[in-house]
Write a structure and sequence with these properties.
With 173 residues, the protein is an alpha+beta fold. Helix content is 29%, strand content 37%. The protein contains 4 helices and 8 strands, in the order E-E-H-H-E-E-E-H-E-H-E-E. It has a 5-stranded antiparallel sheet with strand order 1-2-3-4-5, with helices on both faces. Strands 6-8-7 form a 3-stranded antiparallel sheet. Helix 1 crosses helix 2.
Length: 173
C-alpha cells in the first residue's frame, strides 16, 4: 500500500492507516494495559473492525485516527488523529491517541497530539478541538493538559455494559 502521510513533528510522522497495519494495531489494541480505558483488550475481530472504521472515516471525512511512526527508526508507535464524536447531542472534533505501552513515557503522545492540534487549527482552520478522556485515565489527561487543553465538562459514556465518567478537555484556536 502507498503510504499517505498527513503531518510530521520533530520525531514523528503521522499517516493514514492501511489494511496492512492490522498487525501494528494488534500490538496496542490487544494489550490489556493499553486498553484499560476500554475495559480490556480487543479480539482479532474487534481490531479489524476498528481498522475498517478508520478507513471509513478517511473516505467520509478525510480524517480519522492515523498511524504514528518514529522518523528515526520507522517503528509504528500507535495512533493519533482527529475523529468526530458525539458529546451531549452535538458532534465535536476530537484528538484521540493510543500508543503501545512499550512506547509510553517518551512524550510521543504529547508530541503527536500537539501536531494534530496544529493541523486542525492551521490546515483545517478549525476553531476548537477537544479530547474526551475517561475520568480514571490520568496519563491521557496529562497529555491533554500539555496540549494546552482545559477541562470543560463531564458526561457518562456507556461502554461494554458499564457507565464510565468522561471528561472533555478543550482547546481553542
Amino acid at each position: 500500500d502507498e503510504m499517505e502521510y498527513i503531518l510530521e513533528t520533530e520525531r514523528l510522522r503521522l499517516r493514514k492507516l492501511t489494511l496492512s497495519d492490522l498487525d501494528n494495531l494488534k500490538e496496542t489494541l490487544q494489550d490489556p494495559k493499553a486498553m484499560y480505558a476500554y475495559e480490556g483488550a480487543f479480539s482479532d475481530k474487534e481490531t479489524l473492525s476498528w481498522l475498517q472504521r478508520q478507513l471509513e472515516r478517511y473516505a467520509e471525512y478525510g480524517l480519522g485516527l492515523w498511524g504514528v511512526e518514529e522518523k528515526a527508526s520507522g517503528s509504528f508507535l500507535g495512533q493519533c488523529g482527529l475523529t468526530y464524536q458525539e458529546w451531549k447531542d452535538e458532534m465535536v472534533l476530537e484528538i484521540g491517541y493510543l500508543f503501545s505501552p512499550r512506547y509510553w513515557g517518551k512524550g510521543y503522545a504529547s508530541e503527536a497530539a500537539r501536531g494534530t492540534k496544529d493541523y486542525a487549527f492551521n490546515v483545517l482552520k478549525e476553531k476548537e478541538v477537544c479530547s474526551i478522556i475517561r475520568a480514571t485515565n490520568t496519563p491521557s489527561m496529562r497529555v491533554a493538559i500539555r496540549n494546552g487543553m482545559l477541562a470543560r465538562d463531564t458526561s457518562i459514556k456507556h461502554y461494554r455494559g458499564m457507565d464510565m465518567l468522561h471528561v472533555r478537555f478543550v482547546a481553542k484556536a
